[in-house]
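[step 3/7] inverse_fold.run input=structure_tokens len=492
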């Protein structure tokens, strides 16, 4: 078994000709290979569900049978287990797989294995030796993925670490990115092939649990948490750029909020230059998506019940038209931000810097987690006393603090009793839902005035005021209920 460590970067087809001329590669001649690969699976996609890929590759005149474990690729970095041996297409001998459980799984699937999709591309590759003990293969792949009548182009650069440190790999990637429009990709060729073969539509990616084990250092948990946030963010990139579906924007913003919450949570343990460099850049990107989300909520949640109550009202018709125009303009801004070199550079630089964070055994995660949670719970309790009036700013501050507490609890949840965590989270979720709807109402009033200045927005503002009063009457009881729950992290 080998561990494949690589960075995968996509680039526009028109920029591919610039790769060989890059200063990093210009002094050596590339080696070119034609690579044809066929990927196999069972009709019920048993391998895909296990995040495994089985392929036959024709490399020159030889055939290689490869088994790969798929893995998330935050910031383009992928570390996968790989088993490779000579073979003949259609024949499956998995004796070279040294994991007995995996080998038995693959052998049981042999009778049902059939071609699912293929990749056909030309690889030009260069060998970099920036220093003694470091070897990096830089490959430019150009070709296509084919699944039945469907095709998708391949144009990407892969950097594989043959010898050396992961930091060396990122140094090379960052050097290339300075002069080329390279974007860190989270989806492998296999993932794209399955999506093409099954004609699956893009689905919004939601937050997933990060890896957390008792023996991990606090920085290791931080790193795992951030990479989980990056996986969610990158899982929504394509849907955000290519569709108008509101949920992709929403989930991308959730990912960035979680990411920034993690940076704040671990700030006492992080180098100040790391925080001061990256937190403002993530905030800027999140803000570029914020207006789109606000107008989406306004159009899909706020306006429909008002339009239903007052059908064909002239001011509402004008407001709807103005809102749709505003949304279209904001969506273009958000899509441009997610397709920009600034975002691509941020992903790669952030991933490199996060991997390079210095490790320390102190404080242990079992001490750091409850201390951090207590700090955030205390802040929520303090702000709760300031929401007895109708001040929207006070409610917003409480909502932000409560979100940070909830995210922190989600990050550390495996450390504490699941039942107590669940009850506490349910109570927090109910309170956050109400505060969120109240915030949407406040924002909606601002948007209504922006779209229809003067008295033309009076109807909407009156409706929103009534809705806000109703929700305000529910706030005190939900606050009291939440604050009555004992913190689950204080009970062993």
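[step 3/7] decode complete -> sequence:
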């Amino acid at each position: 078994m080998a561990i494949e460590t690589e960075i995968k970067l996509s680039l526009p087809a028109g920029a591919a000709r610039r790769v060989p001329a890059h200063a990093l590669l210009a002094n050596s001649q590339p080696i070119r290979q034609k690579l044809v690969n066929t990927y196999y699976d069972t009709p019920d996609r048993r391998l895909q569900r296990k995040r495994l890929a089985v392929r036959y590759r024709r490399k020159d005149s030889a055939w290689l049978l490869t088994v790969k474990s798929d893995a998330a690729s935050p910031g383009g970095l992928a570390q996968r287990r790989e088993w490779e041996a000579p073979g003949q297409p259609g024949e499956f001998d998995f004796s070279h797989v040294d994991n007995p459980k995996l080998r038995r799984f693959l052998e049981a699937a042999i009778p049902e294995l059939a071609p699912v999709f293929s990749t056909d591309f030309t690889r030009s590759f260069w060998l970099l030796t920036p220093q003694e003990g470091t070897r990096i293969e830089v490959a430019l792949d150009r070709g296509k993925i084919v699944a039945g009548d469907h095709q998708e182009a391949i144009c990407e650069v892969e950097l594989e670490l043959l010898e050396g440190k992961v930091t060396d790999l990122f140094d090379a990637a960052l050097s290339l990115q300075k002069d080329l429009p390279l974007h860190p990709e989270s989806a492998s060729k296999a993932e794209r092939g399955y999506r093409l073969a099954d004609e699956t539509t893009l689905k919004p990616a939601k937050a997933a649990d990060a890896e957390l084990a008792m023996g991990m250092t606090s920085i290791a948990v931080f790193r795992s948490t951030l990479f989980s946030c990056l996986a969610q963010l990158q899982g929504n990139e394509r849907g955000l750029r290519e569709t108008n579906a509101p949920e992709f924007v929403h989930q991308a913003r959730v990912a960035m909020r979680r990411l920034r919450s993690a940076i704040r949570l671990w700030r006492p343990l992080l180098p100040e230059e790391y925080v001061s460099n990256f937190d403002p850049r993530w905030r800027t990107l999140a803000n570029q998506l914020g207006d789109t989300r606000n107008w989406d909520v306004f159009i899909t949640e706020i306006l429909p019940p008002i339009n239903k109550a007052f059908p064909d009202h002239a001011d509402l018709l004008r407001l709807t038209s103005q809102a749709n125009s505003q949304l279209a303009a904001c969506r273009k801004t958000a899509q441009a931000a997610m397709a920009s070199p600034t975002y691509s550079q941020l992903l790669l630089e952030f991933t490199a810097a996060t991997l390079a964070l210095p490790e320390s055994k102190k404080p242990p995660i079992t001490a750091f987690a409850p201390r951090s949670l207590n700090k955030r719970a205390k802040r929520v309790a303090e702000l709760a006393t300031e929401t007895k009036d109708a001040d929207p700013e006070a409610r917003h501050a409480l909502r932000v603090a409560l979100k940070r507490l909830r995210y922190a609890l989600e990050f550390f949840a495996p450390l504490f009793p699941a039942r107590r965590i669940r009850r506490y989270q349910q109570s927090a979720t109910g309170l956050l839902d109400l505060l969120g709807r109240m915030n949407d109402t406040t924002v909606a009033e601002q948007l209504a005035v922006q779209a229809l200045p003067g008295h033309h927005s009076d109807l909407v503002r009156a409706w929103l005021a009534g809705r806000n009063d109703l929700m305000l009457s529910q706030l005190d009881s939900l606050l009291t209920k939440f604050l009555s729950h004992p913190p689950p992290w204080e009970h062993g």
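[step 4/7] annotate
The mean pLDDT is 92.
The two ends are 41 Å apart (CA to CA).
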